[in-house]
Structure to design on (894 residues):
């Protein structure tokens, strides 16, 4: 801990009307407790406001996209502060450096804010106790805090009466301030209603597209349908003739990072006018080199790559010798394939920006308001303190809204057209200019011995690497291999190989990122090895997990080890709740799969019935070990959500490429799981008191393999290519 | 040419291109942004409103066709979230991102008027053409049944009171 952070003080914000407000700060690096080497750079930031009437407002600094951070984060603060949840109001933080990086992703909000918020809440509570003790002239140790008041025997002082004097006291040392013991929690671990839900049932919740600013106009962009193509020439005569059109102009492509494809902009008085006028543009495109790319050319490239000698990323034992020694009936080799996937958030990308000479304001439904501020600063030359970024609700994120392409475009437009401009993407824009989940291809080879031990496991992987897209020449495998770097199952030899495939298709983080791919491959292959060994696939997993071990990532000493006991724990819970081993009717099957991602352990069990060559998912049982569960109903909602997202990707959706462009342009071709197809989902949470880990994504990876393993159990047919096609089960 | 129709009990008149979809008139001209744009091709249901009591996809409904008719949007369902369907949505903690939920709720209200005591299978059938990318179908199913008085809700329901 540095001197700077020790000197952090409470600030007193006084105002006649508002009364005194206690503002307590713990910077985002409050995780100094865990990572003492990290320098504390953030200045004070404000989490708790108590007015003289005792009204408590708690601030959350992350973007709300449905994952529940506007509830779970304040719950942590409220518990340590010792206030009742019913007395709490919440508000979203302004985008100021005081809150550090407000980036919201990687299932990291609760995990990352757990200690900073507990320290903030506890510090405020102790200051209030000290203030009360001084008032009564008793020792602080004789007092305690409960329900928004400090007590000494039967004497009581409400926080509102104490706030002014408390705010003048020194902030306790973050290293020694008393934190509650898990058994003292009254809010953490108890399901609370989501704070954002009431506004979401009456149309009053304001999403990015609902932002209305006086004098505002609307804009759309015609982008080249082929990835990376540019405007060659265009004729806007007809577009300009549409009533209500205000301007038509070109924006140039901007490089990766701060990203814009460039295109022809139409600015109009209404959204529909802008869209209609865009249809009237006559544009000649320079399609560029991507025109020849298709899913088939990519597939040929993938196969050539896995046939070749690839870069060895990890090697333990002698895989080649193990395979040579295995009898042919105990040896298997199979290829798995996964397509590009679109995020398809229900609210298409959009951003409202107003650029003026000396300042700018943005309303950006972004998972990274900090990045929005950076982008606007870079494009306008304005300093960041002149740029105000508001974060409205988001109609889904799933990783898509971490990109800065839509704020970049909106800023380019607002720089030229000096009114508040709302950039609107149509659904087609959104689906055809996404940063997709990478497509990938995997060749798995392995062997088991007569006792059911795995003697060899080799994974040859190729994909359209995310790292390669954003940082060409970096380690392309770094974004692609996930849990293959922490193999939970015991194998006498293990070999992991990788090469990236060349592709013009943009890609980035999609819900659970590489785990959505790696989970399917690893948990399918372990099922195949169980079959080769003649073992029950659940029992096989339990045996191959062996004694409790910690599995480190050999490429990254800072990475947290995988705990096989917790991996086993979720498998056992899911198998128990899902009646593993209980007989089913003919044509039905049960499958199980587990995966470790975002430091969370999830096992999913699927029960399916095959009816007329179609799979019907009858039931999903999920067991999750997410450390301390903060808001259990919120955890269940996130797991249900991730499972449905995963089922859609396994059964319905994909993005295919023809002539350098996305084939699917809207929900008529990019189909999703309907309510009829959505099975009952049961979520069970492993009790735990260790620090919480991520939950927005980890439910997804074990979904597809649980399903395909169930299909195998029902039919003997092994699905190795997603999504499942109608002919696959015939 | 002015086009007049009733929205949430009030007569409104707009001067727009008559082929403008009702959705954009509601959102851009009348500032009723609770009705959402999701796909523009009547495939997702986020824009669902009631026209003369019947559910309709406002993204694909030219405003000229609603002249003289009665339109109800999510904002017109109740003044205070007191509609039984809204209450059920809160009780079952349905919305996640919430963007599709105006359309889901308007679809459910219309569905329940035709099927006041639905089975679970009927709910699935009636609600299957609305897309939710957050995967809230299971909670929607429970909420529709709750609103119909067909269940007492789950034992661990959390949607009452608390922080706002």
């Amino acid at each position: 801990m540095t001197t700077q952070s020790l000197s952090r003080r409470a600030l007193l914000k006084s105002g006649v009307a508002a009364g005194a407000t206690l503002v307590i700060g713990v910077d985002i690096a409050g995780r100094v407790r865990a990572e003492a080497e990290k320098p504390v750079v953030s200045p004070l930031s404000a989490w708790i406001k108590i007015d003289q009437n005792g009204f408590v407002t708690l601030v959350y600094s992350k973007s709300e996209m449905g994952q529940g951070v506007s509830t779970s984060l304040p719950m942590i603060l409220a518990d340590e502060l010792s206030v009742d949840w019913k007395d709490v109001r919440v508000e979203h933080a302004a985008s100021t450096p005081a809150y550090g990086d407000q980036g919201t992703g990687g299932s990291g909000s609760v995990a990352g804010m757990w200690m900073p918020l507990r320290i903030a809440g506890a510090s405020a509570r102790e200051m209030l106790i000290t203030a009360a003790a001084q008032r009564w002239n008793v020792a602080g140790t004789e007092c305690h805090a409960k329900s928004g008041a400090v007590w000494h025997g039967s004497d009581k002082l409400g926080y509102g009466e104490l706030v002014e004097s408390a705010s003048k006291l020194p902030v306790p040392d973050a290293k020694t301030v008393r934190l509650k013991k898990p058994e003292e929690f009254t809010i953490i671990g108890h399901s609370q209603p989501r704070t954002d839900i009431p506004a979401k049932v009456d149309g009053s919740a304001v999403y990015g597209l609902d932002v209305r600013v006086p004098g505002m106009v609307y804009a759309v962009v015609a982008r080249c349908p082929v990835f990376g193509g540019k405007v060659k020439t265009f004729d806007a005569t007809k577009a300009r003739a549409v009533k209500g059109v205000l301007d038509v102009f070109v924006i140039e492509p901007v490089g990766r990072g701060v990203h814009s494809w460039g295109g022809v902009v139409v600015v109009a008085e209404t959204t529909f006018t802008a869209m209609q006028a865009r249809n009237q543009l006559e544009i000649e495109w320079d399609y560029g080199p991507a025109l020849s790319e298709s899913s088939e050319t990519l597939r040929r490239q993938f196969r050539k790559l896995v046939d070749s000698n690839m870069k060895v990323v990890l090697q333990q034992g002698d895989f080649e010798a193990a395979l040579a020694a295995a009898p042919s009936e105990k040896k298997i080799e199979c290829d798995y394939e996964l397509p590009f996937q679109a995020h398809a958030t229900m609210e298409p990308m959009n951003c409202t920006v107003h650029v003026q000479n000396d300042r700018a304001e943005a309303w950006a439904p972004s998972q990274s308001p900090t990045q929005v501020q950076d982008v606007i600063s870079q494009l306008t030359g304005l300093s960041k303190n002149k740029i105000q970024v508001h974060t409205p609700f988001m109609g889904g994120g799933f990783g898509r809204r971490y990109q800065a392409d839509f704020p970049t475009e909106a800023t380019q437009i607002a720089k030229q057209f000096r009114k508040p401009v709302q950039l609107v993407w149509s659904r087609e824009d959104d689906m055809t200019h996404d940063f997709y989940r990478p497509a990938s291809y995997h060749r798995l080879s392995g062997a088991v011995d007569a006792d059911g031990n795995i003697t060899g496991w080799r994974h040859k992987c190729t994909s359209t690497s995310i790292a390669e897209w954003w940082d060409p020449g970096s380690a392309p495998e770094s974004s692609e291999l996930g849990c293959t770097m922490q193999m939970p199952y015991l194998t006498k030899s293990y070999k992991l190989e990788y090469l990236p495939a060349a592709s013009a298709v943009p890609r980035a983080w999609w819900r659970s990122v590489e785990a959505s791919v790696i989970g399917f491959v690893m948990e399918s292959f372990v099922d195949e090895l169980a079959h080769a060994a003649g073992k029950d696939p659940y029992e096989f997993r339990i045996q191959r997990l062996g004694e409790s071990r910690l599995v480190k990532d050999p490429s990254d000493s800072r990475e947290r080890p995988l705990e096989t006991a917790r991996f086993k724990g979720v498998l056992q819970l899911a198998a128990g709740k899902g009646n593993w081993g209980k007989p089913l009717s003919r044509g039905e099957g049960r499958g199980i799969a587990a995966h470790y991602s975002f430091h969370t352990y999830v096992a999913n069990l699927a029960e399916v019935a095959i009816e007329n060559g179609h799979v019907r998912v009858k039931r999903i049982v999920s067991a999750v070990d997410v450390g301390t569960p903060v808001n259990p109903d919120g955890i269940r909602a996130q797991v249900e959500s991730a499972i449905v997202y995963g089922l859609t990707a396994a059964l319905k959706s994909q993005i295919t490429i023809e002539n350098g462009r996305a084939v699917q342009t809207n929900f008529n071709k990019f189909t999703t799981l309907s309510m009829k197809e959505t099975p009952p989902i049961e979520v069970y949470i492993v009790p735990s008191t260790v620090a919480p880990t991520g939950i927005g994504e980890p439910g997804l990876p074990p979904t597809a393999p649980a399903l395909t393993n169930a299909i195998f159990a029902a039919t003997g047919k092994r699905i190795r290519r997603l999504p499942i096609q109608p002919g696959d089960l015939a | 040419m002015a086009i007049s129709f009733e929205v949430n009990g009030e007569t409104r008149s707009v001067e727009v291109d008559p082929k403008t979809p009702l959705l954009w008139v509601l959102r851009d001209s009348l500032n009723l942004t609770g009705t959402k744009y999701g796909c523009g091709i009547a495939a997702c249901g986020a824009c669902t409103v009631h026209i003369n009591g019947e559910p309709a996809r406002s993204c694909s409904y030219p405003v000229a066709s609603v002249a003289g008719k009665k339109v109800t949007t999510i904002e017109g369902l109740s003044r205070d979230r007191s509609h039984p369907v809204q209450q059920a949505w809160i009780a079952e903690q349905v919305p996640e991102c919430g963007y599709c939920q105006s359309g889901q709720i308007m679809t459910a209200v219309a569905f329940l008027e035709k099927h006041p005591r639905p089975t679970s299978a009927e709910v699935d059938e009636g609600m299957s053409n609305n897309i939710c990318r957050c995967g809230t179908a299971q909670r929607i199913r429970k909420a529709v049944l709750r609103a119909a008085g067909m269940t007492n809700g789950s034992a661990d329901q959390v949607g009452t009171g608390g922080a706002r």
